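User: For documentation purposes, I need each entry recorded in a consistent format: the amino acid sequence on its own, followed directly by the corresponding structure tokens. There are two entries in this batch. Please keep commentary to a minimum and don't merge the entries.

Assistant: Recorded as requested. Entry 1:
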Amino acid sequence: MAKPTIELIQALRETASRLRLGAHYAWGHHGACNCGNLAQVVTKLSEGEILRYAHHGIGEWTELAQEFCPVTQAPVNLVMNKLEAIGLTTTDIHHIEYLSNKDVLKRLPGGFRWLKRNKREDAIVYFETFADWLEEKLLAEMEPQFSRLFNGIETGALSSRVELS
């Protein structure tokens, strides 16, 4: 499961926005498919650079993710390192390529439905829904920290710490 990070949420939203604005989209193209478009946002590499890097590996993004080895630092692994660094797992990469994570799909506007992996509009709604879900998770993780902070203010615990400093 993806780790909800601000970087990942922003990357998913930017990818959806770029697709909505007409970024090149071709599901069978490593640099312009679902993962390819996300990789462009995350790595700041061009579609062509990602395509060249991906051709150092074998297969689709699903296979590239499964073959990922952070130790070898082969060109495609540099891309995979960036995706992993913002919170994605190899399973997430598979789901993004196929638009298939059931937890994301059940949160789609209008409810659960299967999406077509090679349809731009489906990719856009998947990226947006995934970002929204991760944002909810991130806020839920942060809530206890904020509660402790605000509870400390209400009880005066923080003010006494401030006075001591």
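Entry 2:
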Amino acid sequence: MAERRQTVRRADRALRRGVRLAVDVGSVRIGVAKSDPDGALASPLTTVRRGAGDLAAIARLNAEHGAIEVIVGLPVHLSGRHGSSAADARTFATQLAQLVAPTPVRLADERLTTVLADAALRRAGRAGRKRRAVVDQAAAAVLLQGALDQERLTGSPVGEVLGPADGDVAGDSPAVRGPGQGGAR
């Protein structure tokens, strides 16, 4: 047991300091969450309307909060397949990477984040319409908290880094690893 505690402590020291943003890209709304500078806690930040100006709005949030990275959720099917929503998120992340360079943009598996966020909001007593208005930012917070926790435990950031110019992978892992998804780096 003491050995496990030491491993966690060593991984805790490996967590990079700085605010992170997470983005949950939907067809109508984009949820945004941010972490504290120590990477201990992810909190819902805002919801951006999808469409003209959405990328610029997120780039402004990145600059305003001085983020060290932006994590974009990649909606992967439970089977592991990537559908049209994943392709849309990848395109969005690639365009965002161009706007926020040199801040890294990472794609991370977001399986079940919206389901978890919606369930938590229901338990908190949020009614349907009010819940719908914040579920995307809550899903982004679930994604970000999972990413922070995984980095704290493993010492490695989650996901796939997109290159700022062309969307090519700048990292060394072909897999998109999200919170709880494991995978080799």
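Summary note for entry 2:
The helical segments are 2-14, 54-65, 84-100, 113-123, 128-154.
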